[in-house]
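Predict the 3D structure for this chain.
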Amino acid sequence: MTPVDRARPWLRAHPLALDAVLALGVLLCMVLGSFADPHGPNGPTFGTRTPGLRSLVLMTLGAAVLVLRRRRPMAVLACTSALTMVELGLGAPPAPVAMSAVVALYTVAAHTDRPTTYRVGVLTIVVLTGTAMLFGTPPWYSQEHVGIFAWTGMAAAAGDAVRSRRAFIDAIRERAERAEHGREEEARRRVAEERLRIARDLHDVVAHHIALVNVQAGVAAHVMDKRPDQAKEALAHVREASRSALDELRSTVGLLRQSGDPAAPTEPAPGLAVLDDLLGGFRRAGLPVELARIDDSPLPASVDLAAYRVIQEALTNVQKHAGPGAKAEVSVVRVGPNIEITVIDNGTAAGDGNGDGGGHGLLGMRERVTALGGSCTAGPRYGGGFRVQAILPVKAAETGATGEGTS
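Done. Predicted structure below.
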């Protein structure tokens, strides 16, 4: 790393020191330039003239005010321009005090907008060049006057170019920051959606199997002394339901593992293909369930899983809340571009838990179905019982899956 590279961070943190160094450099250039005579016998010569005391004072003042060029650019430009006009009108020949005005004009152009740069730049060029032509010792067409015109014009143009480049870089940085912020927001949104989906799956799995375990454990406790064979059968159902719950929990939680983890699950998510097994579990738990299914054609994975979870949650609520002697009916019907899932029961227990009563079952069902663009309704039936109906759009899901695969 060069000394300049090491000093650059410090200079950026202390701009006043950087301006003081610049002012000292401009002063040295002006003093050295005041010893040069542009009208020598064989061209410009150095050391044939010396600056007067007034010129040295004006050059020192012009360089000194440059220390404040970032804080008060307009005031510094006005001050340096006034000092330059004094030197041009009284000097014979004049010292290059105009250098300080050139630096000040560059600063104004670099820190203001373009219209201001045009107005201030034109005014400065006209005033300094006009003063030199009207009050200077050389003739109006001399090269010194052309030099003042050219240097002030280039200072305004250079400052405007620097300002434009800085604005362009800031715009690019702002767009990059906005894009990064957008990516972070999208990542957080997807994480929240995934967490919600996993929470729904965990709720469905746990609620379903724990309800079965609770019912079978109650049966076993009730008939343990009088009918031990039936108690053993109930305990076997408890063990089977527990094993299924553990398997599904392992499959769901395994989604949180790293992609390269060999323990990550590879079995497919449950769907209507295993609906008979689901209903069989409820029947073994003592809940009579009838199934009416029309058109068992394969469904998109998301719709298949949602339909399975809706039936699972609805029957779990019937098992827990519909009361003794309740029966349930499940229908799966393909109607045009949709598939309709309906679960009804004839439960008569007070305070039917199929309602929203503080749980998250129905809320989770609605969120799952709504996420696929469908609708889910639930409420008491006329004459007793409860009804849950979900309508899932199959065509939209098939189109979305096709679009993802071809993009």
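The CA atoms of residues 311 and 343 lie 7 Å apart.
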